[in-house]
Amino acid sequence: MHAQGQAAGARKTFAPMPVTDDEIRERYLDRAIRELNLLSREIQECRLCPRGALMPVLGSGHPQADIMLAKYAPRPSEIEEGVAFYGRSGTALMKSLRRLQIDPLAVYGTLFVKCPVADTALADPGCLARVAEEIAIVQPKIIVLMGEDALEALNELALPLARPLSPIVGEVQPLAPQMAALLVPNIDVALDEEHTKRAFWSAFRALGDWWAELPPY
Questions:
Q1: What is the pLDDT of residue 17?
Q2: Number of C-alpha atoms within 13 angstroms, CB side, residue 156?
Q3: Span 21-212: which CATH code?
Q4: H or E element: which one contains 137?
Q5: Which residues pair with 33 in a beta bridge?
Q6: Cβ partners under 8 Å of residue 13, min gap 6
Q7: Domain spans, the chain
Q8: Residue 23: what pLDDT?
């Protein structure tokens, strides 16, 4: 007996299931890329913030990064290029990551205030909440928060199963199951003076200790 409308001998075909760890990882990576591309288009089309003709500043990096870097708002160089951590801060971070022997390909960077508004207070809460979507897609093992304003913004997201973070600089804190957080000074401010550079490095090198203890799988 055949189902109504189905020709005799016809068989349903299914995509082959991944059978190796590499195939499974590739499937997850492909999905993360698609979801981030979709999120980027939604952000670019969003008109919640009064940004005029300027485009939002998008996150960049590996779609399944172990480390997520998050600042609160963009700088002029990032606004000009439309990419988070572009310019002076990005160059300084690359040097810091190499010094800590952290693979830059294991990093994703983003901003809470994605739109270039005249005053960050004008940013719509829905804009800031986009970071929660990025976290859900990338699923980092640690989020490095650049400045207390970024920490407060993350706490306000109330991520599933997340605990409130304390404003303790340079100490890795548990955030959610299989996810930690590290508060460091704002890299944009830290680059202006020698003593603030040292303060940033003192806090940021805790990321190197965390990375060194990360299991190799």
A1: 58
A2: 15
A3: 3.40.470.10
A4: helix 130-138
A5: none
A6: none
A7: 21-212
A8: 82
